[in-house]
Write a structure and sequence with these properties.
- α2 packs parallel to α5, α8 packs antiparallel against α10 and α11 runs antiparallel to α12.
- This protein is of the alpha+beta class.
- The two termini are 36 Å apart.
- The longest helix has 18 residues.
- Strands 1-12-2 form a 3-stranded mixed sheet, sandwiched between helices. A 3-stranded antiparallel sheet has the order 3-4-11. Strands 5-8-9 form a 3-stranded antiparallel sheet, covered by helices on one side.
- It has 2 domains: 186 residues, no CATH class; 87 residues, no CATH class.
- The radius of gyration is 25 Å and the shape is globular.
- The protein contains 12 helices and 12 strands.
- β8 and β9 form a beta hairpin.
- 27% of the residues are buried.
């Protein structure tokens, strides 16, 4: 699917009255990437009804996150437990409140990452039970126990849903009339342009450069990724971004007048790191052999993960080579 197809889908669905949540700028992506558009057909059954409005269920928001290409950043903790004091006026005892944390990112048309802010979601298990059983204390306590057990998951899921809404521009809740008996929701995402990578020498060179971290030499310095606006302002899982360490200034280098020393033309090039070698091997496997689509997706996701560990890359190389050996494509 190329940008023209994605734009055609968006135009067609707009004419049909679908709700469009496509990212801006998808008509002009970087050479190594392309835009995809996905139509999700939803019905009221895909939502919770809260105060007369429709709020997406977890599985609905997961589908939306996948359609929009949301990757979740690994955080130190997905949830915390805070102690809330008793509130006799509201018939609330002292209790634990589960607070979830999440952060995500989506790829921008230029290939950079657009980060969300860290979102939080507090789940008060007893307040929810009280809202559902305001008069029957026994039933309330039973519900409270059920919600307490699910508290960590509900808090973490709530935070992830806020990230998805923030990155996609989707509202927290839809008017029931908007969805009606069924409605199309259109989302876009930026993915690697494997057709271009596989079919042209230039694409393979560029893919190798990206895998080895040489993008600035091809495209010039990359600006800081645009941050999404907090979901709390629009209120209605996993990678970590690592910035490059600053190099030594030119005045600290040997050479005339504090400038850089002339490079030794006879010096051996620095050996690649083990991680770079693994990345190079994965790129070569993708280019040279028919990798299954599911496996290729896993490889592409790992290559796009700038802070992938050496062990992660090594394991993927070993798994890929094992598959190719089993198929008789490479020697053991």
């Amino acid at each position: 699917m190329n940008e023209n197809k994605a734009l055609t889908i968006i135009a067609d669905e707009t004419a049909r009255g679908a709700l469009i949540f496509a990212a801006k700028g998808i008509e002009s992506t970087a050479p190594l990437y392309k835009a995809e558009a996905t139509v999700l057909h939803v019905t009221p059954a895909d939502f919770h009804t809260i105060q007369g409005k429709l709020v997406g269920k977890k599985e609905t928001c997961d589908r939306i996150g996948e359609a929009a290409g949301v990757d979740f950043v690994r955080l130190p903790r997905e949830f915390d437990i805070e102690q809330a004091p008793a509130e006799p006026a509201l018939d609330l005892p002292a209790r634990a409140i589960f607070v979830g944390h999440a952060q995500g990112r989506v790829r921008a048309p230029d290939g950079s990452w657009r980060m969300s802010t860290v979102e939080t979601y507090a789940f008060d298990y007893y307040a929810k039970a009280l809202a559902e059983e305001p008069t029957d204390l026994l039933k309330r306590k039973k519900k409270a126990m059920e919600y307490y057990k699910a508290g960590p998951m509900r808090a973490a899921t709530g935070a992830r849903l806020r990230v998805i809404r923030q990155l996609t521009g989707m509202p927290t809740a839809f008017e029931a009339a908007k969805i009606g008996e069924g409605m199309g929701l259109v989302f876009s995402r930026i993915v690697q342009n494997t057709d271009m990578i596989l079919s042209t020498p230039e694409g393979r060179r560029m893919a190798t450069a990206v895998a080895l971290g040489l993008v600035p030499q091809l495209f010039g310095p990359q600006g800081a990724p645009e941050a999404a606006s907090p979901a709390s302002q629009n209120e209605p899982e996993i990678f970590r971004t690592v910035s490059e360490s600053e190099g030594t200034s030119a005045s600290d280098q040997p050479g005339d007048f504090g400038g850089e020393a002339d490079p030794d033309p006879f010096a051996d090039p620095p050996p690649p790191s083990a991680s770079d070698a693994y990345r190079q091997a994965l790129v070569e496997y993708e280019v040279a052999f028919p990798i299954p689509p599911d496996a290729k997706k896993l490889i592409d996701e790992l290559l796009a993960k700038h802070d992938a560990s050496e062990d992660e890359l090594r394991v993927m190389v070993e798994r890929t080579k094992k598959y190719l050996v089993q198929k008789g494509l490479v020697a053991a």
